[in-house]
Design brief:
Number of helices: 20
Protein name: Adenosylhomocysteinase
InterPro entries: Adenosylhomocyst_ase-like_sf, Adenosylhomocysteinase-like, Ado_hCys_hydrolase_NAD-bd, NAD(P)-bd_dom_sf, S-Ado-L-homoCys_hydrolase_CS
Number of strands: 15
GO molecular function, one term: adenosylhomocysteinase activity
Pfam family, one: AdoHcyase
Structural class: alpha/beta
Biased composition (Low complexity): 84-103
Distance between the termini: 67 Å
Length: 558
């Protein structure tokens, strides 16, 4: 036998030994894992195994999709069937909280066509699958750990039940963080009915967990437009229950009650709105003299504007883009349309990763801030031909038009970080000459006749909550603000608030902030009597006048 043959034989023998040792280590680790979890019940173990994909030895070639599935056409079925379901089954079977626990065995029957019953015997809800409640409860438990301030408020106030008698109808994103808010409101004495403000952001398992606990929820990920309005109506129009408070995100619920149920709207004691779009609608109603109830503008409160809008978007913009496109940002040319708090957060994140960032603005003050923060302020039409990514965050409509979409380069990524899906003219892309190709869940290639492709995310809807997750701690700040706003409006004497839109009192903003300082082990300096007198302040606050503008420079957010 030749020397090379002997070497080859020895290498083969060594390789076989390595494989066997590797298998032994894996077997040992598996045994250790089972031993550590031996206290689990058989039911829990079965549930855990069914929830988490297991990796079995593969003896044949992996088949990612069924042979009958097509990739060349965008789903065209209308009505109540979900438009968000990816043609690629592997895309929807993600176990991230953003994608929900959508098992591949789920049929595509609309939840509206099913009759589901929770453990309490109630059918007053409509979710994707009530059996996912256990998974949802785990998600909520995780969120609770990073929402200590909201839990603190819950413990302080639940004895007093400041929301006893309140019947709150809510329309927000239904996530684990929102669930903590809803259950806090219930602990404080409120009755709640809930629906989703976005057809793609609902965590199905969380909706199931809330319904299992007795909160009527009407929402599931991937609703059609018809489903969306039906769900809102189910929350409002129910026998023997009439809302007296509204918690809204986007203004759709307020608009529906105002238009469809004017008598109910007149009896509402207060509205709490947290989005730019919804607040704009409220001011329009107020200006026209049609707002017959007091409303609280949470969006422009300091604790929402300077934290949720800024810090939340600074972290979640990258998460959403990377999950959907796997894009590398270093050296990419990005346009951020709008340099408000959301735009500032997006720009800070992108700049930190080495992107070349442009800003578009209509406001000269925001434009000047962008310039001073080191960004070039341009018109979109000036750079649309060569940029790699376009992000809208203005709250306006038709920020990106069909003409601009036509001029984009091949492979340009287009997405929206504003609440409404009106910022990108998506409707103009649904024409016979353009082909839609679903690539992943929430990712579409829009193909022009010459072969050019534009990558559209979430069909122009809110990117971070449709395609990824958002930081729990920041949402705790917003949720605590919303809870206090509801308590204030519900308990305030009639003479305190007229039929208008109000900002949260400064003292309440400071209280929300103070609740969250303990997380960082932060210690506030206290004014002496002499210092308080010199500044003309109460030692316990508020520490700033209402006209004070908190610093929002980019260099204070990196």
């Amino acid at each position: 036998m030749s020397e090379s043959a002997v070497d080859a034989k020895l290498e083969l023998k060594q390789a076989s030994k390595d494989v066997k040792e590797s298998e032994n280590v894996a077997e040992k680790y598996s045994a250790m894992t089972v031993s550590k979890n031996s206290e689990m019940t058989m039911g829990e173990l079965t549930s855990a195994l069914s929830a988490v994909p297991t990796h079995k030895p593969v003896k044949k070639q992996i088949q990612f999709v069924e042979d009958k599935q097509e990739f060349s056409r965008f789903p065209t079925k209308t009505g109540r069937r979900s438009l968000s379901r990816s043609i690629s089954q592997s895309s929807t079977d993600s176990y991230s909280s953003a994608a929900s626990y959508t098992d591949s065995s789920d049929d595509e029957t609309s939840p509206r066509d099913k009759t589901q019953v929770n453990s309490r015997g109630s059918t007053d809800f409509c979710v994707k699958n009530i059996k996912q409640a256990e998974f949802g409860r785990r998600e909520i438990d995780i969120a609770v750990q990073d929402m200590s301030a909201l839990i603190s408020l819950r413990k302080r106030a639940q004895g007093e039940k400041p929301l006893a008698g309140a019947k709150i109808v809510g329309c927000t994103h239904i996530t684990a963080q929102t669930a903590v808010l809803i259950e806090t409101l219930v602990s404080l004495g409120a009755q709640c009915r809930w629906t989703a403000c976005n057809i793609y952001s609902t965590q199905n398992e969380v909706a199931a967990a809330l319904s299992e606990r007795g909160v009527p929820v009407f929402a599931w990920k991937g609703e059609s437009e018809d489903d969306f309005w039906w769900c809102i109506d189910q929350c409002v129009n129910t026998e023997g229950w009439q809302p007296n408070m509204i918690l809204d995100d986007g203004g759709d619920l307020t608009h529906w009650v105002y238009k469809k149920y004017p008598n109910v709207f007149k009896k509402i004691r207060g509205i709490v709105e947290e989005s730019v779009t919804g607040v704009h609608r409220l001011y329009q109603l107020s200006k026209a003299g049609k707002l017959c109830v007091p409303a609280m503008n949470v969006n422009d409160s300091v604790t929402k504007q300077k934290f949720d809008n800024l810090y939340c978007c600074r972290e979640s913009i990258l998460d959403g883009l990377k999950r959907t496109t796997d894009v590398m940002f270093g050296g990419k040319q990005v346009v951020v349309c709008g340099y408000g708090e959301v735009g500032k957060g997006c720009c800070a994140a992108l700049k930190a990763l080495g992107s070349i960032v442009y800003v578009t603005e209509i406001d000269p003050i925001c434009a000047l801030q962008g310039c001073m923060d080191g960004f070039r302020v341009v018109k979109l039409s000036e750079v649309v031909r060569h940029v790699d990514v376009i992000i809208t965050c203005t709250g306006n409509k038709n920020v990106v038009t069909r003409d601009q979409l036509d001029r984009m380069k091949n492979g340009c990524i287009v997405c929206n970080m504003g609440h409404s899906n009106t910022e990108i003219d998506v409707a103009s892309l649904r024409t016979p000459e353009l082909t839609w190709e679903r690539v992943r869940s929430q990712v579409d290639h829009v193909i022009w006749p010459d072969g050019k492709r534009v990558i559209l995310l979430a069909e122009g809807r809110l990117l971070n909550l449709s395609c990824s997750t958002v930081p729990t701690f920041v949402l705790s700040i917003t949720a605590t603000t919303q809870a206090l706003a509801l308590i204030e409006l519900y308990n305030a004497p009639e003479s305190r608030y007229k039929q208008d839109v109000y900002l949260l009192p400064k003292k309440m903003d400071e209280y929300v902030a103070s609740l969250h300082l303990a997380t960082f082990d932060a210690h506030l300096t206290e004014l002496s009597d002499e210092q308080a007198k010199y500044l003309g302040l109460n030692k316990n606050g508020p520490f700033k006048p209402n006209y004070y503008r908190y610093c929002n420079s980019l260099f204070n957010t990196i």
